[in-house]
Amino acid sequence: MNDDSIPEHELAESTECTQYPRVVRIFSGVAIEGKEITVRLVSSAYGLIGVDVIAHTVLTGYDRDCKLNYPEANTEFHFADIRLKGGILECMSAETKVPFFREGFTVVLEPGMVARIIKYKPLLAKVAVVAAAVERRYSQLIGKTP
């Protein structure tokens, strides 16, 4: 799952009463909320996992939270394209017609977020696979090809 060894204390669920990071269920995914950023991981009907990063007002100084991905960016990735390297989340996907070019982003995570991503990423990948199978079958039933 991750490229680097994650310390055991990062993988264990915290027994302390800390407020952050906290995990909130959203749609077919989760939002891992930290003090400065939130990482949203959501399964899609195409077998992919959508990843968004939101910066909170404490980080930006703005009057509202800001999505850090630009609107035209690809924010859906295959399971293998979402990597953890130490405390950094790297989401890079290959272009279909130009496979040697990879597009995406990296973000430094807040303490405790790595363990949450390690826990939920495989579960969301399973949901994405099932959703893709349902989408394919539904398309066959209505006579459309995905």
Walkthrough of the structure:
- The protein contains three helices and nine strands; from the N terminus they run αββββαβββββα.
- The protein starts with 7 loop residues before the first helix and ends in a 5-residue tail after the last helix.
- It has helices at 8-11, 57-60, 113-141, and strands spanning 22-26, 29-33, 37-43, 49-55, 66-67, 76-77, 82-85, 88-94, 102-108.
- The strands form two sheets. Strands 1, 2, 3, 4, 5 and 6 form a six-stranded antiparallel beta sheet that branches. The chain has a three-stranded antiparallel beta sheet with strand order 7-8-9, with no helix packed on it.
- It has 146 residues and is of the alpha+beta class.
Chain-averaged pLDDT: 86
Query: Termini distance?
Result: 29 Å
Unreliable residue runs: 1-17
Number of helices: 3
Q: What kind of sheet is the major sheet?
A: 6 strands, antiparallel
Instruction: Give the number of DSSP strands.
Output: 9
Quick structural summary:
With 146 residues, the chain is of the alpha+beta class. The protein is 25% helix and 32% strand. Strand 1 (22-26) and strand 2 form a beta hairpin.
